[in-house]
Amino acid sequence: MNIGQAAAASGVSSKMIRYYESIGLIPKTVRTESGYRVYSDHDVHTLRFVRRARDLGFSVEQIADLVSLWQDRERASKDVKAIALEHVGLLERKIRELQEMASTLKHLADHCCGDSRPHCPILEELASHDPLPVHAKADARFGALGKA
């Protein structure tokens, strides 16, 4: 099948297939005499594997390791589990960071009247030279002001 058909069958865009080939994530495919790429069912299966790993947020480097382990029938499952658990830890840290960002923004929005006056603690905080506050710092900075 050609690259368009492989893209449709795998859910990976033609552009990404070319990119994955260029960085060695997937092997370069066979080409016809006229230079067109030809993909096998096995290639499509590998592309689906890569797409699922990307859907779970694995990095390209992690996916390369996972593809290698997937293709190695002598692999130890502990190696796969270690990659997955490392990724879980990263995702959990990102979730905490996103929750902290949302909480800080909510706190700042709670201290903004959102009226027609120009004073806005949200913009003041963004313009500040200080690191973004955690709640204790934000309370200290804006608590005395009340809702501004």
Describe this structure in words.
The chain is mostly helical and 148 residues long. The chain has a domain at 1-58: Multidrug-efflux Transporter Regulator, Chain: A, Domain 2 (Orthogonal Bundle), CATH 1.10.1660.10. It has helices at residues 3-10, 14-22, 41-55, 60-71, 77-110, 121-127, 135-142; strands at residues 30-31, 37-38. Strands 1-2 form a two-stranded antiparallel sheet. It is elongated.
Reported CATH architecture of the domain at 1-58: Orthogonal Bundle
Task: Write the CATH fold name of the domain at 1-58.
Answer: Multidrug-efflux Transporter Regulator, Chain: A, Domain 2
Indicate the structural class: mainly alpha
In whole angstroms, the N-to-C terminal distance is 63 Å
The backbone outline, from C-alpha atoms, is elongated
Low-confidence stretches: 136-148
Rounded to the nearest angstrom, the radius of gyration is 24 Å
Work out the strand percent: under 5%
**What characterizes the major β-sheet?**
2 strands, antiparallel
Counting DSSP E segments of at least 2 residues, the number of strands comes to 2
What is the H/E string?
A: HHEEHHHHH
Mean residue pLDDT: 89
Looking across the biggest beta sheet, what order are the strands in? 1-2
- State the helix count: 7
Subcellular location: Cytoplasm
Main location: cytoplasm
Domain HTH merR-type: 1-69
GO biological process, one term: positive regulation of DNA-templated transcription
